[in-house]
């Protein structure tokens, strides 16, 4: 229920002690959220407050809480402030401790890094207000002293509630709040968010379907966003050479730097960590004062760059979603979004961080890179201004979360009736429809995995030997994933890490990906060691990354608006207007300039065939490529693409290649399949069969098997799963079929990746004639426009010269064991760069010096042995061959022998090649090292 409460001075809803300190903090007049929400919260009502970042939401929630606590006799913890990020804990602590000091209230923080001393102190002498995370609340509900402290809870504030509503973390929190209610009785619940598309649903998520007032401030009404594609200038052509990139990227860097220079403090948002690193390196190259902030950086590095930006040492902070939430980095006066933000909620979260020194407007610039990007950004900016935020999809019915919380209940109670546990569980909004039969299946699965003891006759659940360890190993519903180290074969250094899911589902030797702003090809994956060996791509210009990370999905409504916008532009062209006239028409309706509009419209001007629209699919083909131009968003297109490829595959017995984006489904079909066959699938497939086709296809997919392993761990069916062996995962799939574990894994994949029910509805609309299908022979400008959509525009900096230099520096710094095979009395370990041009024994003056790995003492022992076995004979032979090479070629042979996996035979082949320069010598060494890395698994 939307509240319109409030008045001229909402601070009068607060009592004198709190009002007396408002002016000390600069609160002279209430902000709009405070004006509307304080009277509601002061009554003790549950409430959801949706307002832009920087409008005082934290104080809006906490001032009435402080007001209720001041002057009362308190023993336990009276209020919890739950935040999804530890970084927000620091901000909350700083801000709330000031109020606590003024009002004689104790404020403390508790999370995974809190010391044992501080934890004990909090249990023995509980603070009045505790700032914590959803995971730490789980642990707190199990300790006897903390349970007594929590039994006095009267208020719970959940910050960034939208961030939790769509995840298993949030589902777990709702169950924890119901467990807390069973302990403490009813308490006030307050949710805070910058953007929520469906406040009533999120309010029910927060309160467990109980009454909830909503106070919503439209962030879009204070938004001033411009969409801009930079023009390429002569200066950009010169800058492109300096940055080893293309002129269009150089123009982006130049324009963003100009915008940064025009403002005091700018946040520059990008959509991936790779782009953050790549852009960061380019800003560094041009001397811009820009810091980089993303989730892969260490906590120390993030805090350092936050503080430097806040103190004014940096002009801009280049960040990913790590800075979407309310981490305090001081006042922001402008936000740049590099490429489309993909979703209205993200644009509001990001640009909403600018302004707000009272009633300032939030200003931002979206820098776009191609027509898809521009039209999408325009549609999103338009929807944001109208407040048309995507509805929040609550993550409902996750069975592994229920399993986790049943064990949590036992940790708090020791034993509990199954009926009582079911009642507590189904009070949480995401589990309101959980059936008693499914609940009992989950209990039996937990019992079979020895995580609890089930007394069927007494309907009682009790702890078992595995309860304690399982619970503390699974405080979080964030999957426990291994990370693979990524090692550059050229330098031998680790350049970063890859998530286990990424490696298992996508990686194989030969695939290309981007990390640290550079492009790499996989040489080898070592699953036992948890490492991925890669080689830098020397000429990235012609390479397209096979996978670059998970995309932010474009919603259906945004993709539909893009389809409608394109169709309207085509109609304006068809009325006889020039591109300049259509560009002016576009500028009148959307926040952009004529150059940006004209650049995007060039594609529409060339597209004279049938135009894909919100209600029209255009199917085009060329050879074995068939493309469905379908503006339905990422998830529907991915689901529909899977259905089509599965059915065509069944029909032909051949595999079908599939790539999707929000506006296209691209298929590589077997010979003999035409676009007519694709249309036939759309028009004749029974919509009710879609779910079965999808499940059948998923059973063969790595993504389901990997998710199954993660879910099995949350059910206690697996202690730990690396997820690497296809054979093992297939056996696990068979073993867990027809269990709640399999049911949950299938549900999760469909929730996270697909849109099954929406795709069923789309097929019905196609077959009812509400969505038309047109066919086009050949490729169209729009159909081919998606080919760069998955490609990072920021090409790598490491051109061939830098790769050669890296290999050279590594080898020159390596150490080699030099042994005289003439007198057998002299040996020395020395850096390669310190080896003389012609090594010579100082004892006997012989040049028969073997260059060996520094740990090759067994080779020296073999050479010295009077009686040798077969292995020692081989070692001796290799040593003499190495010595002969050094004797003939001096230091060049030492360098070749220092390379990884290069023995005397291959070293001789490298040396024997005729070359014009030293760089070619090191190129050949690198090539041999890569060959060794690919094949070493087959060597004894």
TrEMBL record:
It comes from the Archaea. The keyword Membrane does not apply. GO terms for biological process: DNA repair. Residues 38-214 form the Helicase ATP-binding domain. GO terms for molecular function: ATP binding; ATP hydrolysis activity; catalytic activity, acting on DNA; DNA binding; helicase activity. Residues 255-400 form the Helicase C-terminal domain. Keywords: ATP-binding, DNA damage, DNA repair, DNA-binding, Helicase, Hydrolase, Isomerase, Nucleotide-binding. SUPFAM superfamilies: P-loop containing nucleoside triphosphate hydrolases. Pfam families: DEAD (PF00270), DEAD_assoc (PF08494), Helicase_C (PF00271), WHD_Lhr (PF19306). Belongs to the Lhr helicase family. Lhr-Core subfamily. This is DEAD/DEAH box helicase. The lineage of its organism: Archaea, Methanobacteriati, Methanobacteriota, Stenosarchaea group, Halobacteria.
């Amino acid at each position: 229920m939307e509240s319109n409460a409030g008045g001229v001075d909402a601070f009068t809803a607060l009592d004198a002690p709190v009002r007396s300190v408002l002016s000390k903090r600069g609160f002279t007049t209430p902000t709009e959220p405070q004006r509307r929400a304080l009277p509601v919260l002061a009554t003790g009502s549950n409430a959801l407050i949706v307002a832009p970042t920087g409008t005082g939401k934290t104080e809006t929630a906490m001032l009435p809480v402080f007001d209720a606590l001041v002057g009362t006799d308190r023993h336990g913890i009276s209020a919890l402030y739950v935040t999804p990020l530890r970084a927000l804990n620091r901000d909350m602590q700083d801000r709330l401790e000031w109020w606590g000091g003024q009002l004689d209230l104790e404020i403390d923080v508790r999370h995974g890094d809190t010391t044992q001393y501080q934890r004990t102190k909090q249990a023995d002498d509980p603070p009045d207000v505790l700032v914590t995370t959803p995971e730490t609340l789980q642990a707190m509900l199990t300790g006897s002293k903390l349970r007594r402290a929590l039994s006095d809870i009267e208020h719970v504030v959940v910050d960034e509630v939208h961030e939790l509503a769509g995840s298993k973390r949030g589902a777990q929190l709702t169950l924890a709040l119901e467990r807390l209610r069973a302990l403490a009785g009813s308490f006030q619940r307050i949710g805070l968010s910058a953007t929520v598309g469906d406040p009533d649903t999120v309010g029910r998520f927060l309160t467990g379907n109980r009454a909830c007032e909503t106070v919503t401030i439209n962030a879009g009404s204070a938004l001033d966003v411009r969409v801009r594609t930079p023009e390429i200038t002569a200066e950009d052509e010169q800058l492109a050479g300096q940055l080893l990139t293309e002129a269009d990227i150089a123009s982006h860097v130049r324009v963003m730097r100009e915008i940064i220079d025009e403002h005091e403090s700018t946040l520059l948002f990008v959509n991936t960590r790779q782009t953050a690193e790549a852009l960061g390196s380019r800003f560094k190259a041009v001397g811009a004062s820009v810091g980089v902030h993303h989730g892969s950086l260490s906590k120390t590095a993030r805090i350092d760059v936050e503080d430097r930006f806040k103190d004014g040492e940096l002009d801009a902070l280049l960040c990913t979603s790590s800075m979407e939430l309310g981490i305090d980095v001081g006042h922001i006066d402008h936000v740049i979004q590099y490429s489309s933000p993909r979703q209205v909620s993200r644009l509001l979260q990001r640009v909403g961080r600018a302004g707000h020194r009272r009633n300032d407007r939030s200003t931002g610039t979206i820098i776009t890179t191609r027509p898809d990007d521009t039209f999408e950004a325009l549609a999103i900016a338009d929807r944001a201004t109208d407040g048309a935020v995507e509805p929040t999809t609550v993550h409902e019915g996750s069975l592994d979360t229920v399993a986790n919380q049943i064990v949590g209940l036992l940790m708090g109670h020791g034993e509990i009736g199954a009926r009582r546990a079911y009642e507590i569980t189904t009070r949480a909004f995401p589990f309101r429809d959980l059936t008693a039969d499914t609940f009992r299946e989950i209990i039996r699965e937990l019992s079979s995995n020895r995580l609890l003891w089930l007394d069927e006759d007494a309907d009682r659940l009790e702890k078992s030997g595995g309860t304690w360890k399982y619970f503390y190993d699974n405080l979080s519903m964030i999957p426990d994933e291994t990370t693979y180290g990524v090692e550059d074969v050229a330098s031998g250094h680790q350049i970063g890490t890859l998530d286990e899911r990424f490696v298992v589902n996508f990686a194989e030797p030969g695939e290309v990906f981007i990390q640290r702003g550079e492009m790499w090809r996989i040489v080898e994956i070592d699953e036992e060691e948890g490492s991925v060996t890669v080689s830098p791509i020397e000429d990235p210009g012609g390479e397209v990354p096979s996978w670059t990370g998970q995309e932010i999905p474009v919603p259906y409504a945004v993709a539909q608006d893009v389809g409608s916008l394109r169709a309207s532009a085509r109609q304006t062209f068809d009325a006889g207007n020039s591109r300049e006239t259509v560009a002016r028409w576009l500028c009148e309706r959307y926040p952009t300039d004529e150059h940006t509009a004209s650049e995007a419209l060039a594609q529409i001007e060339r597209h004279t065939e049938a135009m894909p629209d919100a209600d029209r699919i255009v199917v085009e083909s060329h050879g074995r490529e068939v493309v469905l131009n379908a503006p339905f968003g990422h998830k529907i297109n991915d689901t529909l693409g899977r259905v089509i490829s599965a059915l065509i595959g069944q029909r032909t017995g051949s595999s079908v290649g599939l790539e999707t984006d929000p506006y296209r489904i691209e298929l590589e079909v077997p010979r003999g399949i035409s676009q007519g066959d694709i249309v036939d699938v759309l028009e004749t497939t029974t919509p009710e069969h879609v779910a079965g086709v999808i499940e059948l296809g998923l059973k063969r997919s790595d993504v389901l098997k990997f998710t199954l392993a993660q879910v099995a761990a949350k059910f206690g069916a697996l202690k730990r799963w690396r997820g690497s062996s296809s054979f093992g995962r297939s056996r696990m799939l068979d073993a867990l079929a027809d269990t709640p574990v399999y049911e949950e894994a299938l549900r999760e994949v469909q929730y996270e990746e697909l849109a099954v029910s929406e795709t069923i509805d789309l097929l019905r609309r196609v077959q009812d004639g509400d969505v038309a299908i047109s066919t086009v022979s050949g490729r169209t400008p729009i159909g081919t426009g998606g080919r760069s959509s998955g490609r990072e525009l920021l090409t790598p900096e490491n051109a061939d010269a830098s790769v050669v230099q890296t290999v050279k520096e590594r080898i020159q710094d390596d150490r080699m064991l030099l042994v005289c095979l003439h007198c057998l009395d002299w040996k020395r370990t020395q850096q390669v760069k310190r080896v003389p041009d012609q090594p010579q024994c100082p004892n006997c003056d012989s040049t028969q010096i073997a260059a060996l790995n520094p740990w090759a003492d067994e080779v020296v022992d073999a050479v010295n042995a009077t009686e040798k076995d077969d292995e020692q004979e081989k070692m001796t032979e290799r040593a003499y061959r190495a010595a002969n090479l050094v004797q003939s070629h001096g230091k060049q042979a030492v360098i070749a022998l220092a390379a990884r996996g290069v023995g005397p035979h291959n070293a001789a082949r490298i040396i024997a090649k005729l070359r014009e320069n030293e760089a070619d010598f090191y190129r050949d060494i690198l090539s041999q090292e890569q060959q060794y890395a690919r094949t070493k698994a087959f060597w004894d």
